[in-house]
Amino acid sequence: MCGLSGEIRFDGRAADVGAVGRMTDAMHDRGPDGSGLWSLGPVALGHRRLKIIDLSDRAAQPMVDSDLGLTGVFNGCLYNYRELREELRGEGYRFFSTSDTEVLVKAFHRWGPECVEHFTGMFAFAVFERDTGRLTLGRDRLGIKPMYVAQDAARLRFASSLPALLAGGGVGTDIDRVALHHYMTFHSVVPAERTILTGVRKLPPATVRTVEAGGAVTDHCYWRPPHTRSALPEYAGLTSDEWNEAVLDRLRVAVRRRMVADVPVGVLLSGGLDSSMIVALLAEEGQEGLSTFSIGFHAAGGESGDEFAYSDLVARHFGTDHHRILVDDTRLLPALERAVGAMSEPMVSHDCVAFHLLSEEVSRHVKVVQSGQGADEVFAGYSWYPPMAGLPREEAAAAYAREFFDRPHGALAEVLAPDYLTGEDVSGEFVRRHLAMPGADTALDAVLRLDTSVMLVDDPVKRVDNMTMAYGLEARTPFLDHELVELAAACPPELKLASGGKGVLKDASRKLLPAEVIDRPKGYFPVPAIRHIHGPFLELVRDALTGQAARSRGLFNRAYVDRLLAAPDEHRTTLGANALWQLGLLELWLQAQGVR
Fold first, then answer.
1. CATH code for the domain in which residue 203 is found
2. Is the pTM for the entire model greater than 0.90?
3. Short-list 473, 454, 512, CA closest to 143
């Protein structure tokens, strides 16, 4: 797990090593264990390293293989790197390290861009070919590892974080009105390739981008689960019990894969079903002395701020080395400001602050953790999925918008200043277009495909990456193992919707977990002080939305802002998020990144 950056020029000039150095330095927290720069003519690569596999300097990056004429930088982990190394050795390749980075470079030499189809893991990488001058960028199937890009006629730059690209300079920072529409409508999700800034784009997940020396760019999407019953014919006709066993077997493999490391691996234990299953399966594997971590906050607005009762129960049941972290209210405000600064893009969820504080504490004990993100999107655990069941396909987009969108398109005229309105319902059209794509047997299948490939990538997955990497902590997500996702996509929807959602997962867990954990009400990372804005948090938001920077930018309708500030807890989005926080967070992020 690391941070990577680079530049390739198309105008005959040498790469700007100084800019790549600034981008690399801006990602120090992602890789506190080492750094490197490399350049050759029009190309420069930078890297910040977090030592997880092969702790020696032989695994340092950028990694140059002069014999093969390749130089690469890599962020992530190839969980099957040992198997791939043996396969490549059998084909005559010799290795000078025991790192997964070297496996990636040699796999690229052997298979070219198709190497991604051999990888099991999370990854973003760049490989430069000396003899052709070609640069290849790649991103994992579920977009777990980020890749931001800024391109003009003269050059292309890329980095693991958006602020790193800003540090390099020369990036357009106007507000992208389509992205703003998504942010204000699509529950703060801005789908790839867009970001909130016009000058920065994201490499989509499951995509390999080939950049020729002259500047021509081609993209190839190499993976998309079809969400059809016929996708995995070997599972046709399974009973519900057989589906439970198939899911449990696949999850076992996913958890086992994510123990690959040369350092200890812990677990973020919320006490919910998903993280508890990870702990149970590690115990089943014979893991002893497993470090687990839970976080809680003081209650506010009549809302509890912790779920320690459940995490303590699981920790006792499996005998883990458990760390219960209760955050004092005095730490929340500075943590909030640091969390905003750590965001590659504005992210509204108050989970960000919880993950940021949790990562700060966990990083003092371990460098790698497994986490339960993704199970709700993959196994239909959220409240907006049951209303999709049985709907005619042509009604799915409207139903999804009613359940999930923060507000209808027409309401934006009240929220945004006229200069920032799009005129068209770009978020609604995005969803309609996505749900109408071929594949997906039912309306619910189409919605799950949308959430798995878009919402999951640009909300919870991004949130976990940004907040953990702010402290050089690598988070691994077994529920996003691509083979488990493929299996879940083929699973009959009624099995996923059973028992109030994630039915097949709940039934699979009954051999492993206490019933109190399985059948408990759905939980989340509660941060009551942000859901119920008051005191210093309200003043922070008020200052952000009424200060000189906000007035100069003029994003929001002034009367609407005043109405929210007058009653900060009364205005909620469709799913209950604080509407004032949504506006305030965007302005706080723009100011934290120095966007004027």
1. 3.60.20.10
2. yes
3. 454
